[in-house]
Design brief:
Number of helices: 12
Distance between the termini: 33 Å
Largest sheet: none
Helix content: over 70%
Order of helices and strands: HHHHHHHHHHHH
Length: 224
């Protein structure tokens, strides 16, 4: 196991397309729900415990060896909005290209062949972590950090926030990030014996609503 592989997966410069997506913060800024560092922290905390937990559970389960096609169906069921399902698969397709080049594995090839239009991003993250020899909790960390790091970076660009303050905000969320990653890995372990229904299915309805609205915007900086 190489911790460097975890750093690579979580690095915003990993060529998986995440930099083009705001994780819903562009719409939140347009609705004035996010306007400064404090409101950004509240937004990221909400993502952390809802969509972040769900994504981390799926990634951890894929890293643990659960059937990726069943997990992809489970991800569909946990993503009720068509626009966000499309985004998750587009990000998954981009992540797959990067993962196959960086961490080649038969399991990644299998999923790529079975889902040529793209599997959900967390599933691909989990398989990439598995190919790199990482543990399920590492896959959970990569997924959950992307769920808050992406919106934080987007908000810095959209609001011209001080990047030092945004970094401090992510650091303050560190203990909660640890808790969510651990909970996701624990759920993945239970899913190995109890079935996929043991995985988290936390949701954020407002993110779903604004995500569908954002997809219809004619002018936007981020793809989602």
């Amino acid at each position: 196991m190489s911790r460097a592989a975890l750093l690579l997966l979580a690095d915003g410069r990993f060529p998986a397309g995440g930099h083009a997506h705001s994780g819903g913060v562009e719409a939140a800024i347009a609705h004035e729900a996010v306007h400064d560092t404090d409101s950004l922290e509240a937004f990221c905390r909400g993502r952390l415990h809802t969509t972040g937990l769900t994504a981390a559970g799926l990634a951890a389960a894929a890293a643990a060896g659960l059937d990726p096609l069943l997990l992809d169906d489970a991800a569909d069921a946990r993503t009720p909005v068509p626009a966000l399902r499309a985004v998750a698969r587009r990000l998954g397709r981009q992540m797959m290209r990067a993962a196959r080049a960086t961490f080649p594995s038969a399991e990644l090839e299998y999923l790529a062949a079975a889902r040529p239009q793209g599997a959900h991003q967390p599933i691909v993250v989990g398989l990439a972590a598995r190919a790199a020899g990482l543990a399920p909790v590492d896959a959970a960390y990569a997924a959950v950090y992307e769920n808050i790091g992406g919106p934080a970076g987007a908000a810095v660009r959209l609001l011209s926030l001080d990047p030092l303050e945004a970094s401090g905000m992510l650091a303050r969320l560190g203990p909660e990030t640890d808790h969510v990653a651990a909970a996701a890995a624990d759920a993945a372990g239970r899913a190995m014996t109890e079935g996929i229904d043991a995985l988290p299915s936390a949701s954020a309805p407002l993110l779903d609503i604004t995500g569908q609205q954002h997809a219809a915007w004619t002018v936007r900086l981020f793809a989602s």
